């Protein structure tokens, strides 16, 4: 066999935001995109009572309700941890579960988290499965691209953790190839320079409906942001100031502006989304009582509690939570804590919008009950405030 060409940077491929009729373009026209950040694993964050369940039925029902309410995005993490690494013993795979939800939803975007370097995945697998989910969902499905920050996860797949910035170099090479597979009308042969795979006369059909599936990157590092600026539609960011809303509002404007400027320098636009937890009740006093009750039930951290603090990680995005120069949150979960009456929640979401945030992936302590409260008490006020069409 003759030598295969190495990967060359792919020409800028049209993505869903370049198609005015795509589901992503439809959602991006909202003043503030609304998402639901699911827990597809058995998280025992606090001893305070909750109805939450890791099961597919519980979470798919939430997504169907969010879809009916006009939410734009559904999203979940995926983790690869050994026995004892989860709070409970169950954790569904986001790549499969969110793709399956295409069959029971109509409009909501379904974003599947995928550790793209584990395995390793072959580009033909990702390209073919991605195009299939794209057609099943009619352009509503996408990938949350993660490279893996915990050493123990890389070791589960048989190697030592890859150096942080090199992971994004490898991922960039992978997506240059995926862009070719999703767009080329002829066979494509290539050999990875950084990745251990080859393609000989590779071809996938059908092609995605809007250039390629929706691409999301969850990151806070310079290398991750640079990758996302060149490849992704949505950048799932964290607050540099940590979880307290005041610190988040102080530090986000410069962070978001720098991200969007980096994308524009590459001839692209990206949307910034963030993950608040909404803790709300009819009055401010009741909401803060609820928040304190959740916080009071949080057990002392161990390597098996949510967050898995005992597992070595080189993640950058969450460092602000440990910065004592900023106001500290109550450690309720979510990247930002929004606590208050419905009116106060809307005011805080409006303030986040003013920082440059394009969308919020909402987390709730008790998803079923708290989503109902959001739907009846908060969503109408968001519309009145001009944050939802």
UniProtKB/TrEMBL annotation:
Enzyme class at the top of the EC tree: oxidoreductase
Domain Luciferase-like: 46-358
Entry-linked Pfam families: Bac_luciferase
Annotated SUPFAM superfamilies: Bacterial luciferase-like
Stored InterPro entries: Luciferase-like_dom, Luciferase-like_sf, SsuD_RutA_monooxygenase
Keyword list, A-Z: Flavoprotein, FMN, Monooxygenase, Oxidoreductase
GO molecular function, one term: oxidoreductase activity
EC number: 1.-.-.-
Name of this chain's protein: LLM class flavin-dependent oxidoreductase
């Amino acid at each position: 066999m003759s030598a295969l060409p190495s990967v060359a940077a792919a020409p800028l491929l049209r993505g869903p935001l370049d198609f005015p009729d795509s589901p992503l373009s439809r959602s991006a026209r909202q003043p503030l995109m609304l998402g639901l950040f699911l827990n597809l694993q058995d998280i025992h964050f606090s001893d305070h009572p909750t109805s939450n369940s890791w099961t597919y039925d519980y979470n798919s029902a939430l997504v169907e309700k969010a879809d009916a309410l006009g939410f734009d995005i559904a999203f979940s993490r995926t983790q690869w941890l050994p026995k004892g690494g989860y709070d409970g013993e169950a954790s569904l795979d986001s790549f499969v579960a969110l793709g399956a939800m295409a069959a029971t939803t109509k409009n909501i975007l379904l974003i599947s988290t995928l550790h793209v370097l584990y395995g390793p995945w072959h580009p033909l697998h990702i390209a073919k499965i991605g195009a299939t989910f794209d057609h099943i969902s009619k352009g509503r499905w996408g990938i949350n691209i993660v490279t893996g920050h915990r050493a123990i996860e890389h070791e589960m797949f048989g190697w030592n953790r890859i150096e942080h910035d090199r992971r994004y170099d490898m991922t960039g090479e992978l997506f240059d190839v995926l862009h070719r597979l999703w767009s080329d009308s002829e066979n494509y042969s290539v050999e990875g320079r950084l990745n251990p795979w080859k393609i000989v006369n590779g071809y996938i059909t059908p092609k995605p409906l809007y250039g390629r599936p929706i691409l999301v990157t969850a990151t806070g590092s310079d290398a991750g942001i640079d990758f996302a600026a060149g490849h992704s539609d949505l950048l799932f960011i964290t607050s540099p100031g940590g979880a307290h809303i005041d610190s988040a509002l102080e530090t986000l404007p410069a962070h978001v502006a720098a991200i969007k400027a980096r994308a524009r320098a590459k001839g692209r636009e990206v949307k910034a989304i963030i993950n608040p937890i909404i803790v709300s009740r009819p009055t401010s006093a009741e909401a803060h009582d609820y928040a304190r009750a959740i916080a009071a039930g949080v057990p002392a951290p161990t390597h098996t509690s949510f967050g898995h603090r005992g597992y070595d990680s080189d993640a950058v995005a969450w460092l602000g939570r440990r910065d004592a120069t900023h106001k500290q949150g109550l450690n309720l979960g979510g990247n930002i804590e929004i606590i208050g009456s419905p009116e106060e929640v809307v005011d805080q979401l409006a303030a986040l919008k003013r920082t440059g945030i394009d969308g919020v992936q909402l987390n709730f302590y008790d998803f079923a009950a708290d989503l109902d409260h959001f739907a009846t008490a908060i969503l109408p006020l968001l519309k009145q405030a001009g944050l939802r069409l």
